[in-house]
Specification:
By secondary structure, this protein is of the alpha+beta class. It is built from 19 helices and 14 strands.
Length: 415
């Protein structure tokens, strides 16, 4: 892990890095490149992406919390003033769905939307889901335990998060497969190297996804239930309602974020535990050990690696001058490997207790679903390893051909 990869071309004089994110050697094992970034320059200009990137834990943590950086810029200046291209007509439905996304807006809009939605994600509400997640985990394992093997993503890791978040929102179980298809197409827009086909599929998914949420909302207005969609249709304390666009944007981001990352995280965690030859009985001996094991898997094998921020005013950071309207990249997964923050940082140490990782972000955009993702991991992993104590790799895991998400395409296991 200490050797600089052959694909890693860094110029120390300019702090410029040349690295092709589509190179399988990189996206199969990005942690190796991240270690090289820390060894050479944790802040660098990524030539292929044409942005300055930060990987140091303190820098990434600071920018996530610094209100001089934001997820949105067009509320402060026009696209013309910033030299940004006009929106693409073939992405009109996608852009509409993103326009009020909790991931992309800034206060005061963000504060109002997040306050309304956060009612459903407080820890006491999430903890009530424990019996349901336990029962679902056992039911899924019952379905393949006798087979002596399974492809874990399709039979287990995909099903738990999408079923739980769908039920929370009020989407019927029989729509989960469709939700997965929409979500997979939608999130291609966030990935490096997206194609025209990816964009058209994402736009179609946004349109169909949005139309479905609007229809479901109409049903809930006539027949309110104890679910998140009904809650989002009710007024906030100040009497304000979500607009239709806000409702669609919020439902889509919750459904996407509520399962997409956790699917990868379950697969990544099982992969790293098995590859390191860990003793599951020690990893999940008690509640405290289980929490530390889950947190360490979030740290070393995060499913979402990059978030970007707009510079909202002229400023200087890490010795560099930025202008209002510039954009910077934050590699959260690399910040998790900062040797200044975590000892033996590239090693999986399930008993590590050196502070939290940045996998869920920080600041006002800290992942609203973090309590749910943590609970799902803390329940699903111990049950899986307890039920299948002889579980082992049946073949080398297949890494998904994407970046900046990091997850597996297949994880074939046998016992």
């Amino acid at each position: 892990m200490t050797h600089t990869p052959a694909y890693f071309k860094f110029d120390p004089a300019t702090r410029h890095l040349s690295l092709d994110a589509r190179d399988p050697a990189f996206y199969h094992d990005p942690n190796r490149a991240y270690a090289a970034m820390h060894a050479t320059s944790p802040t660098f200009f990524w030539e292929e992406e044409k942005l300055w990137y930060f990987t140091g834990y303190d820098h990434v943590n600071a920018i996530l919390r610094d209100r001089r950086f934001g997820r949105q810029i067009t509320h402060l200046a026009s696209r013309e003033e910033l030299g940004l291209p006009e929106p693409s007509p073939h992405l009109a439905d996608f852009d509409r769905a993103e326009s009020k996304s909790l991931l992309s807006i800034e206060p005061p809009e963000h504060t109002r939307l997040r306050t309304l939605v956060n009612r459903a994600f407080v820890s006491r509400n999430i903890e009530r889901l424990r019996p349901e997640i336990e029962a679902l985990s056992h039911r899924l394992i019952d379905g393949f335990e006798k087979d002596g093997g399974t492809e874990l993503l399709a039979s287990f890791a995909e099903i738990i998060p999408v079923t739980v978040i769908a039920r929370m929102i009020g989407v019927p179980d029989d729509m989960c497969r469709q939700l997965l298809d929409w979500s997979h197409d939608y999130v291609r827009m966030y990935m490096f190297g997206k194609t025209d086909e990816d964009e058209h599929r994402a736009n179609k998914a946004a349109r169909e996804f949005g139309d479905y949420i609007v229809r479901l909302a109409e049903e809930r207005r006539k027949d309110p239930r104890d679910d998140l969609l009904t809650l989002m249709l009710s007024p906030a304390r100040d009497g304000q309602y979500l607009t239709e666009v806000e409702l669609v944007s919020t439902a889509i981001v919750l459904l996407n974020a509520g399962h997409e990352a956790t699917v990868h995280q379950i697969g990544n965690a099982v992969n790293v535990i098995l590859k390191n030859g860990c003793d599951p009985k020690a990893l999940f001996a008690d509640a405290a050990s289980t929490v530390l094991t889950a947190e360490e898997s979030f740290r070393i094998s995060a499913p979402v690696h990059i978030f970007k921020r707009w510079v909202l005013e002229d400023l200087e950071f890490d010795g560099m001058k930025f202008r209002k309207g510039d954009e910077v990249g934050l590699i959260l997964a690399a910040a998790n490997l900062d040797p200044k923050k975590f000892s033996d940082s590239v090693a999986f140490r399930p008993d590590r207790n050196e502070g939290i990782s940045l996998s869920f972000g920080a600041g006002i955009h800290f992942c609203i679903g973090a309590p749910l993702a943590r609970l799902e991991m803390q329940i699903a992993l111990p049950i899986l390893f307890e039920r299948l104590p002889d579980m082992r790799m049946a073949s080398e895991p297949v890494v998904k051909d994407v970046y900046h998400f990091h997850g597996l395409e297949r994880l074939d296991l046998e016992w």
